[in-house]
Amino acid sequence: MKTTTPCGSGAESSEFPTRSQLAALRAWYAGLSARVAVAQYLGQSRATGQSSRAMLGGIRRQLAQYARRRHRDDLALLITHPAAGREGRARAVQDAIEKLQQLCVPVPVVTDAVDRWLPVRAARALQDCGIRTLADLTVRVPRRRRWWATVPGLGARSARQIEEFFAANPVLTERARALVVTLRTEISPWEHLIVPQEVDGSMGTFRAPQATCTLSAQDDYQAVQAWLSLQESAATQRAYRKEAERLMLWAIFERGKALSSLTTEDAIAYRAFLRRPSPQDRWVGPARPRTSSEWRPFQGALAPRSIAYALSVIGALYRWLIEQRYALANPFAGVKVKGAGRSGAFDGSRVFTEHDWTLIRTTADGIEWIGGWSREGAQRLRFVLDFWYATGLRPSEMADARLGDIEHDAQGDVWLRVVGKGLKYGRVALPLLARGALDRYLAQRSLPVSPAHWSPKTALIPGLAEDETGIGASRLWSVMRRFFLHAAHALEKVNASTADKLRRATPHWMRHTHATHALARGAELVTVRDNLRHASVATTSVYLHTDEVKRARQMGEAFPARSSSAA
To answer: Per-residue b/e over 68-105, b at no fewer than 16 CB within 10 Å?
Structure first.
């Protein structure tokens, strides 16, 4: 990095314009033309083919850059004024030049942006990777071999410049680590997580020798990221990321350890933690966007089956790390979950009844007036409700569906090709309700209704301007949750029980409701199983629950009270 002379010396430096350059600039501000000012003070140094105006502009830019390096953006803005306003700003610019000459040598601080101190190309590559301040940089890539390889666009030459900068300012590293300790009072999701070097696993207790490892990962975060990248299914990647994210956050906050330093005792403690995450204000909260400061890894304690699933995913992660010779042991090997083998009865409260659904669908017809939805957003919502209710798709299948996935068979039946769990291909029947909803929505979007004129890549559920990044499974989830909450508010005085359900509901309830209503209306169990693409009839049979009110009434009629005469 460039340096200046000590504070107040006023001497010239490689960054500050020379006396001749300043004299030419002052003459220009005094009213001389650019040509005369340059000829009088810079005649001998004028470059061939460079105009006088360009030379003065270069001097002004040099001054502005000097000011920015000293954290005086106000002076830089003043110096880069339009050329037409030079006479009115002459005195102010002269004062600014004098101030700049007396400024102390700047000292970098950890909260400075990387583009204040690093070359433009290197700073841009770091910013594209989410590294925006010196603090971000020094805790993400401190003193590691080939640390720059994980930053796209950053080469070895730029890396050396950055290393030389930190070597010249060693206090930055300590200050940044202290800052990280201060900021670690808040939980951050995986994509925003900055792991302190002390617990990043670069020196993990159970790390295998680097020379025999097949991964280029230097720490646990990079190793887990490599494991996640193996998953081609976006839904699977999200599910696995959630479990890895929870474990890494717990290891940092509750145990002060890296993943590659966890022991079997830590694994047992994590199993207990999943049963009751605490402290609750740190770990538990309602569903919030991952960008929100109110986001939390848990919405409550996990059931035994959910804990078993979490531990199975974590176990698979460690087994893969061992296979890649990154880690030496799997601390979760042999850790079992009591009660995970019992399937348990299906919770019938997670289904909308026929009456609930009538109220919900009626509410959707007027959603523009109760929730501030746009016209396009309301039309899309109504299509999603009808199509989802009629098909029972998973959220990811809904978001991924395209017109080209719809096919007609020889019997005239209509099907939707989907890719479900485990990248398994399947077909879902499209009943009249789904087809009618699709035709109506295509017409609202000014798209052809006839399949012969369809574009195969057209999404059934389009992204709107309000979505910003388009529609995906997570965004669709958020849209449905928003509707459920608005509908709950609208139905509060009409039907309190339905409103309460809506406040608790998740979009997966649409799948439960589809299956329950199909079976109640006479669809065979095997038919519903195949449409939901369950591996076993036993999985589908949980939807064969009877209404508890009806059950109590029928049992009451079967066993009436004894009459007084019989007594």
So the answer is: bbbbbeebbebbeeeeeebeeeeeebeebbeebbebee
